[in-house]
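Short-chain dehydrogenase/reductase SDR, pasting as requested.
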Amino acid sequence: MPQTHLYILTGASRGMGLAMAQQLLRCGNTLVCVARSANPDLASEAKAASVTIEQWQQDLSQGEQAAHKLQAWLQAQGPQAFASATLINNAGVIPRIAPLSHSDAADLAHALRVGLEAPMQLTAAFLGATDTWTVPRKVLNISSGLGRRAMASQAAYCAAKAGMDHFTRCVALDEAIKPHGAKVCSLAPGVIDTDMQVQLRGADPAAFPDRQNFANLKTGGQLTSPADAATRVLAWLERADFGTQPVADVRDA
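Structure tokens follow.
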């Protein structure tokens, strides 16, 4: 019986994704990170911890390529390779902060490909390649409160996260009728002190009415550090009732 647990994580090169990757570098884990660039420090930490890691340099706006690679890699491993398998769709981007009427078509397409299309494609590849596996399988989609609450000048990001929530609900229904179906959850991780927050605080107030609210979160010390957010998210992943709620918020723990 294999004792190694597989984790596939997108957006692992910085922010909460990097923090999750670092916390997953535990004995008994195999980690596959998918991001635009590799993180040399992560490779060094994995070597020191004697953890197997692969860093795939992949632009997730080309999600079809990433999905084909993931599917082929999983099929090559086979159903007896791991004690469990987990996909964490964490990568996401926000386009230029502006009303939709002032948005660039290519910028919108990029945000939707990374934030919604790629997670769907990777989830399809993961579930398809492991459908006959009898070990526990999980898909954790990192969503946002903005997928459940509209915000001006954030149409693409809000739409991507709302779509992520709803496709997760659909997948939960698919998997529930299978004898060894995967557990899935789209989880909002709270408000985190990342580069995305810097973008929001630095936006033009005339184009982004909520700018001051985000500035107040920073000055009021209400932002969670990436490391603390990663700890809370991974704790949710390990809950015995993971997947009972296909759409959840870590702040409801």
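Note for the archive: The chain has one domain: 5-191+226-252.
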